[in-house]
Design brief:
single chain; 4 helices; about 35% helix
C-alpha cells in the first residue's frame, strides 16, 4: 500500500480469527495497554465510512491498540454484546470501559481523550 512513494503502514490491526482476538486482548491486558475495537461489517456503510477516521485516531493515540473486527468473519460480537454496527469498544485490563454505538467521530474522540485524561 504505497501513497506518494511513501510506505503507509496502518496502526489498525484487523482481527481475522477468534484466536487472534484472544491473543491481542490477552497481550494488551498483560501489557496494561488500552484497546479500542471497531466492530464493523462490510455491508454496513456507516461502519465502512468510519475506517479512515479510525486510522487517523490510531495515528493520534500511539499508546492504544486499535483493532478492527468484522462481525461476520470473527464471532466475538455476541460475547461482547455487540448488537449494531458500527460499535466502538474501549477496553483496559480485559474489561470494557466504554462502548459507543454509531458513527460519531467527535464523540469517539471526546471519550478517548476523557479516558486518557483519567489515566494520567
Amino acid at each position: 500500500m504505497e501513497e506518494n512513494g511513501q510506505l503507509k503502514k496502518s496502526r489498525v490491526v484487523k482481527v481475522d480469527s477468534k484466536e487472534s482476538w484472544d491473543f491481542f486482548i490477552s497481550q494488551a491486558t498483560n501489557q496494561g495497554c488500552p484497546v479500542l475495537i471497531h466492530f464493523t461489517a462490510a455491508w454496513c456503510m456507516p461502519s465502512v465510512a468510519m475506517n479512515p477516521f479510525f486510522e487517523q485516531l490510531a495515528l493520534s493515540f500511539q499508546n492504544i491498540l486499535f483493532l478492527v473486527v468484522d462481525v461476520d468473519e470473527v464471532k466475538v460480537a455476541t460475547k461482547m454484546e455487540i448488537k449494531a454496527m458500527p460499535t466502538f469498544l474501549l477496553m483496559k485490563g480485559g474489561a470494557q470501559i466504554d462502548k459507543l454505538v454509531g458513527a460519531n467521530p467527535e464523540e469517539i474522540k471526546k471519550r478517548i481523550n476523557g479516558f486518557i485524561n483519567s489515566m494520567s
